[in-house]
Structures are given as C-alpha cells and as structure tokens.
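User: Can you fold this complex?
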Amino acid sequence: MKKDHAVAALAALAQDSRLDVFRLLVQAGPDGMPAGRVAEALGLAPNTLTFHFDRLRDAGLVTVRRDGRSMIYAARFATMNELLGFLTENCCQGAPEACGPALVCKPARGKRAKVSV
Amino acid sequence: MKKDHAVAALAALAQDSRLDVFRLLVQAGPDGMPAGRVAEALGLAPNTLTFHFDRLRDAGLVTVRRDGRSMIYAARFATMNELLGFLTENCCQGAPEACGPALVCKPARGKRAKVSV
DNA sequence: ATTATATTTCAATAATCGTTGAAATATGAA
DNA sequence: TTCATATTTCAACGATTATTGAAATATAAT
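Assistant: Here's the predicted assembly.
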C-alpha cells in the first residue's frame, strides 16, 4: 500500500459517522448490507450517507453492488488489512520484539534493519 | 478503546506529515527520537512539527520527555494496538473465518454472535 | 551575563469538510 | 403509464484544519 492510499483510508475512517458505517459493515461481513438498513441502524439521512459511502469507496474500503433498488455496501477486508500492515511496517527497526508487549507489529519486508546495541 | 478515542487517533494519522512522523517513530522504536531529528528527516518546519506532535499526543499516539534542550518523542504502541483491535472488533458477526482470506480480524469479546445460515 | 540551540506559542490566512434541503434518477409494483 | 421506494446529485453554509511568519520560552555553552 502506498502512503497516499493509507492517508486516504485513514481520513475516510477518521469521522464519527463513517467509522460507524465501516464498523457496521465489518461486522456485517462479506455479504454487506443495503444502504437503507445502514441509514436506519445509524440514524443518518440518506444523502448524508451517500456522501460518506463515497468517501469510503474512494478509499477502497467498501464496495457496492445493486440489488433491485437497493445498493448493497460491503467492507473490503483486504484494504483494511493492508492499512493495518502499513501502520506497523518495519516497527522498531525491524525487530518487533523490541516494541515491548505490542501485539501487532509487522517486521520489515525483505531486508531487516540492524539493531543498534 | 472508546469510539471517540478511535476517531481522534485516526484523525491524527490521517494527514500526510503526521503519518510520516508516526511511522518514523514506530520504526524508531520505544526509545523515540528528538523533535529536531524528526524535523530534519522529514523536512518540516519546527513550529509545524510541534503542531503535529500535539495532535498525535492528544490522540495518545506518542509520548514526550525532555532530554536537555531536546524533546524526545516516541510512539505509544499500546494505543496503536488498541486502535487496530477496535477496527476489526466483532468482524463478520464474530466469525473471523467468514471474512475471507482476511489476516487481521478480531473476534467478538465475550459473547459470540450467531452465524446465520 | 551573554549568546546559541531546541522547541513552542500565537495570530492570520487559505483550503477542506460535514450537513442540510430540494430536486433528480433508477427500479419495481399496480 | 402512474405511483412508490431507494438512493444519488447539487448548491450553500458554517465549522475545522494545515501552514506561515514572528516572537517567546527553556536549556546549555562561553
């Protein structure tokens, strides 16, 4: 994942309503759910919701497909995983164990940086 | 982690310079590095950098301590892990394996939701 | 005490963002 | 075709945000 994409994804998630929407879709799973049910679950106006879906979609965090007159939105788990990986990439100079009791910390890709003594 | 805190942390990371700063600190590890070296590494004006550090600090993503006339900033790995956990919490109705080939997906805490057939 | 270094504070400005309301589009039902 | 449902588009407004420049503070060196 490139940095620009990561910033876009983080910006998409960094908003009250959108974080709610995304987490709801994460919990809904790969089949997603119709826009209307999201609006109802979160108490959002339909046009406001469209605005937020657009941001999430531009960031590659959700997909849409049409089903009848409903639009079904679903979380893109692959993008989320890339984002999490990007944040923890090459942590602690490639030595995750040096990051303390941190649970998620992705080592460097390919080369592993030297650990200073 | 509460939702407000998650939004704050995501907003703190959702900016070009700040994402650079945070990742640099993640890579630097628990000992952190002085503000001056961050400024130099990323080509940021010192006052701009202070502004960004404040945001990261308010979000609990970094800590500061003084060493002589330098301020040493370090990533807070615990907060980052809480954030990652928050995003993936209760994914796919508590059945992470249903999320497809997703690598990071945290099951529900306590109760596990029923999986519809 | 004076000077240099490291960083922060403050005010101002330009740019971006979220919500709203009204109207448009697309699909399905009668 | 006409009506109802589901969602999107567009323009406008107020609020928030990032960057800048100049000045202030804190520590260290002479």
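Residues 3-80 of chain A form a domain with the Arc Repressor Mutant, subunit A fold (CATH 1.10.10.10). Chain A touches chain B through 40 residues (CB under 8 Å).
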